[in-house]
Design goal:
By secondary structure, this protein is of the alpha/beta class. Helices cover 44% and strands 15% of the residues. The chain has a nine-stranded parallel sheet. The longest helix is centred in the middle third of the chain and has 18 residues, at 115-132.
Length: 272
Amino acid sequence: MAKDFRFAMSMRFFKSRERLVEKAKRAEDAGFDVLCVPDHLGAAAPFPTLTAVAMVTTRMRVSMYVLNAAFYKPALLSRDLQALDVLSDGRLEIGLGTGYVREEFEAAELPYPSAGARVDYLEHMTTYLKEHHPTTPILIAGNGDRVLTIAARYADIIGLTGAKVRAADDPLTERVEFVRQAAGDRFDALELNLAITAVPAEGETVPDLSMTRRYAAGMSDEEILAMHSVLTGSPREMADTLSEYREKYGVTCITVQDNHLDNFAKVIAELR
């Protein structure tokens, strides 16, 4: 039996408390299940933002897509997570990643570890949080073999980026099968998440590709439009695409950016 869809909205910026509260309430009313905040210098701070959201919503869960694990010490992060879990009445989900922007480490006056060291630290952080927050769902997002192996072993939600992998004809199938093998008996209980980076504006069928292009340097518009992280078409057509993803890949959790709230709300309505 196919799992139900869940929908998450990622909010990177807000201009005022009023704007944040208004958008959070609209997202909840539109049927979004999770509001998440990324972890980048120059953008909204995850914990105060999510605390504010938790205080003005009642159903929608709060999460991060994703925390830069290397910015934190486990015990200190655990303390903040515990407080957010209490203030949200148990609606917390924990999103983790390795961190990848060297300039942000430098601005934070932190050493920039090697890729391998950042993955090692992600595993250390994940095992600590699993022990101290055993009932709180953990999402780990990434694309490489080692990160997805850690996710398959420890996480509850696997964040798939939809990025190109090697020379695979269907990179999402390849990554899902990799997770399946790494997870073993855990696989059926896992939730597979896909981050969508481009959605058409209301009344349009082709999205602005500027955000996606940041992670797809050198690719043509045609190649970018073919990526799983890019949606095209009417709300009904986008809903059909996501239903195909669920049937083919088992992806049931979809994350979109907050500037797509209104048009993607129509997609949610088509799927429920």
